[in-house]
Amino acid sequence: MFASRRLRPFTLIELLVVIAIIAILASMLLPALQQARAKARAINCTGNMKQLGLGVIMYADDNKVMPHTFWDSVLSWQPADGGSYKGLVNPYINSQKVWECPSRPGTTWNDLKSTHYVYNYGYCRNRAMEAVTKPTETVVFCASSATSVHGIDNTNQVWPNDAASGLRISFPHNDQANVLWVDGHVSAVKKNGLVPSFFNPTWTP
Ligand SMILES: [Zn+2]
Fold first, then answer.
1. CA–centroid distance, residue 101 to ligand 1 (Å)
2. Which of 54, 57, 82, 183 could form a disulfide with 135 if both were Cys (CB 3.0 to 4.6 A apart)?
3. Amino acid 94: pLDDT
């Protein structure tokens, strides 16, 4: 009796049903995996900015003020002495990786110039950290729209956050930007939440 029992092969319909179920399960799982990966990148980026914050604090400790950086029409934010904000802060960190946001597409990397974080140079340069009146609400570094050393010195470079052109900030993490504040903490700010007064207390709103 047992020996005479034969396994019936799968019918095409049964096979298709199984394939459909697998496809549905996979489609439910993939967005969750992608979200987890995006979250991991955002956390990695937060760690980068915390290290940049330590670099700025150490620089300011040695020099009494936060880093300068200045415009050079020929070298484009790259002063002749190599002393852009990256050139000044990086010796305290000594890492290229911390200047790189993991959610930014790969670019040709230049150790002197490349960074995915833009400096709030208009307000911070040559200013003592103790002289900042609202250190928890004043930006030092923000996610950059550029890939090389750049600075913020005008309200229309940051506001509105969804301006079609001219922005020097970006929101690469699910429409959020990581921001390093003068007190050293890093937080994610949603698009349209990064108001000009965070960059300069005299800017409105
Ligand atoms: Zn990032």
1. 4
2. 183
3. 93
